Amino acid sequence: MHVALWKKTAGVAVAALTALTGVACGPQGGSTETPDKQPGVLELLASDLKGSLQKTVDTTTKTDSVTVKMTGTMSGQQISMQGVLDLGGAPKAEMTVTDPEGTTVAVRMIGTVFFVEIPAEDRANTGGKRWVKMDLTAVAGSKAGADFSKQFEEMDPIKQVKTLLAIEGTTVVGQETVNGAPTVHYTVTTPVATYLAQIDSKRRESTEEMFAQQGVKDIKVDLWVDEQYRPRRAALGMGKMGDMVIDYTDYGKAVTIEAPPAAETADLAEMLKGMTTTGT
């Protein structure tokens, strides 16, 4: 069976999806803006750092969805993904993930459950079923569970903004254009211990262990915010562990993300249990 392949694909998908977790963007910046409006907002973003980041948090919190495109590396693997995040309640996502070999796979996330679409030629191993389900709560105590929990937190669309607000030392790099939109670029590099203080206490110990295993000493967070106080781009640098750049567009579009039909879904945990039983 190709269970190892599915687990690897799911792992890459999860890494992409959180990591996925940067911040958000707004409507495309228009070239018809009046000359005096753009400098005014951008100057305010640069001069009132704390106030502008708080306004960005407030604006992003009201957003129901956003389209994302992410590139980067996780655990030594190149990852690329694009799709949509549903931010209206429990985290949901629908993504197309490209692995290092250029193979694409569809992935859906509903809360803590991932659904990975299996290529038609491999479905004999799933009883003809199109999707494989992986519940992260089933691996919560394992290293994979810790990795996934970290990645989930990074997927939070306002996580990086709140991090910049909470950590001393955030500075303004300057005005930059991102995908045609004028933005202000913020950055901060902070020790792992300071960064860990900003994450969920339930995940802090496992995340600290993960960083230690990867030799991560500092975390670098970059954020680009446009004139609508919505992030256009977020970047996260975690030393040898990986890095990612996430671009955000099309806030507030209507999206519907649902779990695949149960009849078309195989449960990875049950498959592994069956293999263990067969092997004994």
Rounded to the nearest angstrom, the distance between the terminal CA atoms is 17 Å
Report the strand count: 12
Rg from Cα: 20 Å
Spans where pLDDT lies below 50 across 5 or more residues: 15-38
Percent helix? 25-40%
Largest sheet: 12 strands, mixed
Task: Identify the strand order in the major beta sheet.
Answer: 7-8-9-10-11-1-2-3-4-5-6-12
- What general form does the structure show? globular
**Class of secondary structure makeup:** alpha+beta
Give me the number of helical elements: 8
Overall pLDDT: 79
Give the ordered list of helices and strands: HHHEEEEEEHHEEHHEEEEH
| Residues in β-strands, percent | 25-35%
What does this structure look like?
This protein is of the alpha+beta class and 280 residues long. It contains 8 helices and 12 strands. It has a 12-stranded mixed sheet with strand order 7-8-9-10-11-1-2-3-4-5-6-12. A hairpin with a 5-residue loop joins β3 and β4 (104-110). It is globular. The two termini are 17 Å apart.
